[in-house]
Amino acid sequence: MPNQLFTPLGTAVVAAGVWAVAGLLVLRARARAFGSRQPFAAAAGDPAAGIRYAFTGAMSPGAKESVREHLPSYGLGLAFHGGIFTAFALLALSLAGFELPRSLWLGARALLALGAMGGLGLLLKRLLKAELRGLSRPDDFVSNLLATAFVALALVSPGQAWLLSAILLLFYAPLGKIRHCLFFFMARSHFGAFFGRRGVFPPGGSHVH
Amino acid sequence: MSGLMFHGQAVALNEEGFLVDPGIWNEELALALAQAEEGLEALTEEHWSVIRFIRGHFEEKQGAPMVRAVCKATGLRLQRIYELFPSGPAKGACKLAGLPKPDGCV
Amino acid sequence: MSTELEQKLDTLTDADYARGLEVFRGGLKEAEASYLNACVRCGLCAGGCHYHRTEPELENVPGRKLDHIASVFKAHFTTMGRLAPGLVGAKRFDRDMARAWVDAVFGRCTLCGRCSMNCTIGIPLPALFRAARRALGAMGLVPEDLQATVENSLQHGNNMAIEREEWVETVEWMEEELQADTGDPEARIPLDKQGARCLFTVNPREAKFFPLSLQASAKVFWAAGEDWTLASDGGWDLTNYALFTCEDDQAAAIVKNLTDAMTRLGCQVLVIGECGHGYQSARWMGPEWLKQRFPFPVVSILELMDGYLNEGRIHVDSARNQEPVTLHDPCNLVRHGGISEPQRRVLRRAVANLVEMAPHGVENYCCGGGGGQLAMSRYRNRRLAAGKKKADQIRATGAKVVAAPCHNCIDQLSELNKEYQLKVQIKTVAELVAAALIVPTHSEVLP
Predict the structure, then answer these.
(1) Taking Cα atoms as reference points, which of B20, B101, B22 lies closest to residue C148?
(2) Which residue, among A196, A205, A44, A48, has the nearest Cα to C297 in the 3D structure?
(3) What ipTM does this complex have?
């Protein structure tokens, strides 16, 4: 594929990417503007160890009942996110004019296929389960459709329609719940630090005393 | 809010089975409460000594007495109070004496 | 629907809503702002909640409860909430939303934090429920009986309005019982002992109605030869119901009773009796409310007992507690307090057969009585229905005794015992330890 960076669509994708990053940075600045807390209570554990655990063990089926009991959803979610990251990697390569080595094609296509199925599966779950439908906002459907389309098009028709879907996805990212690509990390860090200080994370304890 | 049928009339109880209006209490009502709320078919003299003391304390001072005061006034051992009122001094005895639910972890 | 609540909602003015929003906003820092932006409404938190486990409906999904709060946050504090409220689900703070908040954060939540552990993102939901409770408090929407318990503490120094003489008389009575029990006429329950190492604090419920747990704790201290004291006036009550109303100034005033007593009596260690919310209040929240580092450690009596056993200061014979025992994990002590192992080590020594619940420890379920639920009569039926999860857990262990290191939990467990015919005994850990104590001979106790 030729370098698409300087085609009109390619430029628009880059512009949308800049918009997404800038938007997320604004959101981060706004969250930070709420100010931070300097806790007074003496720590019982290490906040940093709590954060490390929050991003590792705490998300494993062994530690988390909601994962244990919903392995299909967990699998769909992993596949979906794997597909999205793959599609973005391919997008970057394609914009830069690099060809993916043929040896990696099969793997990439498999990840995209799984990702599209994951996105579709989660969408169906959201539509079909009454309780989840009740919990949902239009934002949830829009976000899923944009990301699922982006992954699916990367697989079946990585041309202009795909670039268009990338533009829409990147444009929407800071506006709706896709902002969790930023806030997941911010929230989980605070979560880990909180339970780390209190000596709850990691289990078994890195109790200071 | 729930109710207790008493002499053909509904007596208002709060969600936890305490009298909404402690003022309407009488000993017949105590027995009805014992049957409906505490699962006690009859009240013995020991029960009555506790209930009457708690009621008297309430009418005088507006609150529930310490279990210490109940033991002292009735001469009953603490363990006996718990046996007499399976739901305990607060949710058992105070309820039968027509008191409002005491505040706190009870 | 509560008529008391509807009447209060009738009286609210625009200024009240503005005040609520201001207080809500004031309780948010970067952490909470991140949480409010992070939920993806995946719904996987549902099973984490005992309300949802026992009654699976939308309003019992923790993410739904959070969404009521996030909707208002979006409408008032985010650009997209203002520009496209329908798309992102933003809702202005009005009568309907105030009612939804009250129902969600007071009516269907014990602030147990089990949903936090099961959240896909890692949102500690109680942090936001607390911000909402605080805002509702500023609007006068805290349930009256919950607030009354706080007022008691503010006016009387304890949450059951116990007079000083009544408290002192009860302590003296328990001291006599302790002397009779131990056969040691020198056994003491010290009051206002200046310079004692430990200031011990209790739940007023023990003083008022259930003093045997106080006697048990005292017996353990006696056996360990601990240098301890109770305060006679102000500073003996470890409870702090403002943890549940989330009114931080009142919480600070209440916890100050404890720090003042520490200063007055010159003690070195503040010891919290078996009470979950009391532990979280004094150990973790107290310094934040008072905005100061405490110059003394705050420990649970469970940690002390664990230490006594480790150091050989007390000895127990587990054969004296033959019946199978299971252990309840109070949320404020374990999930929010970080105290999980000491009570397990103690019980493994003090009882013959400890059967853990499934799940247990940080993953254990709330008894259903947390978050001030026991003080809110209007939600009693929901509280007991939600407690069925705990009742099922207890039944599955086959235990005859439930050890519950929290007086609030004990009260809920007692109700569950009756409601679900569990036929178990419910005891504090100290009661089980006291029953298993190999009593030292008289000369060993004397210094």
Answers:
(1) B101
(2) A44
(3) 0.95
Residues C277 and C198 grouped into a single domain: yes
With a pLDDT cut of 90, the percent of chain A lying above it is 87
Comparing CB atoms, the residue among C29, C122, C338 nearest residue A198 is C338
Element (H, E) at B10: strand B9-13
Q: Is C261 on the interface with A (CB under 8 A)?
A: no
Number of domains in chain C: 3
Express each pLDDT in C358-391 by its tens digit.
999 999 999 999 999 999 999 999 999 999 999 9
The CA–CA distances, whole Å, from C179 to C199, C429, C432 equal 21, 21, 19
User: For chains B and C, what is the number of CB pairs under 8 angstroms?
Assistant: 80
Q: CB of A23 within 8 A of CB of A175?
A: yes
Q: Is C239 inside a domain boundary?
A: yes
Q: Would you call B103 an interface residue with chain C, using a CB distance cutoff of 8 Å?
A: yes
pLDDT at A2 over 70: no
Catalytic residues of B: 105
Q: Cβ–Cβ of B104/C159 closer than 8 Å?
A: yes
Residue C374 with chain B: CB contacts under 8 Å? 105-106
Domain ranges within chain A, ordered by starting residue? 8-29+42-197
- Residue of chain A whose Cα is closest to the Cα of C341: A204
Same domain, C157 and C136: no
* CATH architecture of the domain with residue range A8-29+42-197: Up-down Bundle (1.20)
CA C383/CA C55 separation, integer angstroms? 11
Q: What is the mean pLDDT of chain C?
A: 96
pTM of the model: 0.95
Range of the structural domain that residue C422 is part of: 310-436
